[in-house]
Amino acid sequence: MFSWELLGDAIVLGVLVGCFYAAVSIGLSISFGLLDVPNVAHPALLVLASYGAWLLGDFDIDPIVAGLLLMPPFFVLGVVLYRTYHETFEKRGSDAGVRGLAFFFGIAFIIEVGIIMAFGVDQRTVQAIYIGKSVEVLDIRIPMRMVVAFAMALLLTLALTLYLSRTFLGRAIRAVAQDEAALRLMGADPIAIKQWAFGIATAVVALAGALLIIVQPVEPTLDRAYIGRTFCVVVMAGLGSMSGTLLAGIILGVAETIVLTLFGASWAPAISFTLLLIVLGVRPQGLFGR
Amino acid sequence: MGGVGRHLGFWIGAAAFVALAFAMALTVRNEYAFFAGFVVLQFIVLATAWNILGGYAGYVNFGTSAFFGIGVYTAVFLLKAVAAPLWIQIGVAALVGAALGLGVGLLTLRLRGIFFSIATVAITIIAETLITNWKFVGGATGVQLLRPPVTEPFDSYIKMLFVIAAVMVVIAVALARYVQNSGLGRGLRAIRDDEIAAECSGVPTLNLKLVACALSGALMCAAGAPSAMYLQFADPVSAFNLNYSVSALAMSLIGGTSHWIGPVLGAILLATTQQLLTVTISSEVNVLVLGVMLVLFVVAAPEGIIGLARRLWRWARRRTS
Question: Which of B100, B109, B125, B240 best tests the A interface by mutation, with the highest count of A CBs <10 A?
Answer without folding.
Answer: B125
